[in-house]
Specification:
Elements: H1 3-20, H2 32-38, E1 43-46, H3 48-62, E2 65-69, H4 71-75, H5 79-89, E3 93-96, H6 99-107, E4 114-116, H7 125-130, E5 134-137, H8 142-152, E6 156-163, E7 171-172, H9 173-185, E8 189-195, H10 202-221, E9 228-230, H11 234-239, E10 247-248, H12 261-266, E11 275-287, E12 292-293, E13 299-300, E14 305-310, E15 327-330, E16 333-338, E17 346-349, E18 361-365, H13 375-382, H14 386-391, E19 399-401
Parallel strand pairs: 1-19, 2-3, 2-10, 3-4, 4-5, 5-6, 6-7, 6-8, 8-9
Antiparallel strand pairs: 1-11, 11-14, 11-18, 12-13, 14-17, 15-16, 16-17
């Protein structure tokens, strides 16, 4: 064999030979391409039926239209796949926080109304029209939409974001009617709704709803149809029917979680968490008493130990605070996560268990309500909210849909 032929043969043959030389009963059947992408990487499993169940529970409770919030990669669950199941389940609207998310949904074939609750620039106004999107507005950027719509001789749909006390974005409610009057005169704008964001302080939320209604009925008296009023997120829809108005905007509850510890404990909607975070054992070693682990030798073995390394770390969204606080479940048994969690690895105490093997699956975040590894439990142990825990999951992690 000539030298060039040898190298060509080596480059083609070696990967296949390597795969065949390392069989493991723990690994599923998987193609070489999938192997390179994710076989030893951590992954997320999503139960789409659980998301559908949660949506229907919310719909049954409120009895009004539902705008399902799928911003931030559907709270870590996967923007497109989650949106598809929500559309099939009958959601009236989808809401995103970035224009790019809305465009991706349209390009994936989603047909239902989509509201971009985030900002846009002048050069993106035409994109909003081309993709048949609805846009939240609160400043003079509405004139960018008028300009683009006039150019295309088409109407563009808008919702006015009114600041009733949140103070983050939105047109101050005292000034809202003036803008509504101008919008009503434009042949290129279709006013579909008035929105506000509640502060989640129940008594003040009532005042916020009163302020939104004040604007709505002021316009109605002038013969202006403002479309749908919407204010209640997950917290609001659990607080009072007075906050439902014409439509609600559930977010965290769609994915099986509640906005606070009290409602999580009460579980009034019988929600089903949809997400599991998993990783594989990639290394096992024996530690003698006094031997150490990780940076700065942060852990010292008090006795002889068997330790496993998992291919997951804080770059994947697993919180560093969970070192020494949480567990991994392997083959139905719980094992303590040891400090210190690094960017791509963590280590667990196998308690001298000799049955655990390289390639075994480990559950780091569980969807079972009775599990100690629910997102709510891990968030509490980390000192953060469930929102932050879920949104912090790396969007590059493979999502596997059940």
């Amino acid at each position: 064999m000539k030298r060039r032929e040898f190298f060509n043969f080596s480059c083609l043959a070696a990967p296949g030979l390597l795969l065949r030389s390392q069989p493991s009963e723990s690994f599923p059947e998987i193609s070489i391409t999938e192997h390179r992408k994710s076989l030893m990487d951590p992954w997320i499993e999503i139960d789409l039926e659980a998301i559908k169940w949660n949506f229907l529970q919310i719909k049954k409770r409120v009895g009004v239209k539902v705008m399902a919030v799928v911003k931030a990669n559907a709270y870590g669950h996967g923007l497109i796949e989650v949106s598809r199941v929500l559309e099939q389940a009958g959601t009236d609207w989808l809401m995103v926080g970035k224009l790019e998310e809305a465009v991706r949904l349209r390009e994936a074939g989603l047909k239902c109304p989509i509201l971009n609750f985030g900002p846009f620039s002048r050069h993106e106004a035409e994109t909003i029209i081309n993709y048949r999107l609805s846009q939240s507005i609160w400043t003079d950027e509405v004139f960018y939409l008028i300009e683009a719509a006039a150019k295309k001789k088409q109407k563009v749909s808008i919702h006015i974001d009114i600041d009733t006390g949140m103070g983050r974005t939105g047109l101050p409610y005292q000034q809202a009617f003036s803008l509504i009057e101008k919008i009503a005169l434009s042949p290129y704008l279709s006013l579909e709704g008035l929105a506000t964001t509640l502060t989640e302080e129940p008594e003040f939320d009532r005042e916020q709803v009163r302020r939104l209604n004040e604007v709505y009925f002021q316009a109605k008296e002038k013969g202006i149809n403002c479309g749908l009023r919407h204010a209640a997120s997950s917290a609001g829809l659990l607080t009072s029917p007075d906050f439902y108005l014409d439509m609600v905007r559930p977010g965290i509850t769609l994915y099986g979680y509640y906005p606070n510890e009290q409602t999580q404990k009460e579980d009034p909607l019988d929600l089903r968490p949809a997400l599991r975070l998993k990783a594989r054992v990639i290394f096992i070693k024996e530690l003698n008493p006094g031997e150490t682990l990780s940076y700065h030798r942060v852990f010292k073995a008090p006795q002889k130990m068997r330790v496993a390394t998992l291919a997951i770390g804080y770059s994947d969204g697993y919180q560093v605070q969970l070192g020494g606080q949480s567990q991994a479940i392997i083959r139905g048994e719980s094992f303590l996560v040891l400090p210190l969690i690094t960017a791509n690895h963590l280590m667990i105490d196998l308690k001298k268990n000799s049955k655990i093997k390289i390639g075994d699956e480990a559950i780091l975040l569980d969807s079972e309500k009775s599990s100690p590894l629910t997102a709510a439990s891990l968030a509490s142990a980390s000192g953060i909210s469930t929102y932050r825990l879920l949104l912090g999951l790396n969007p590059l992690l493979p999502r596997r849909y059940l």
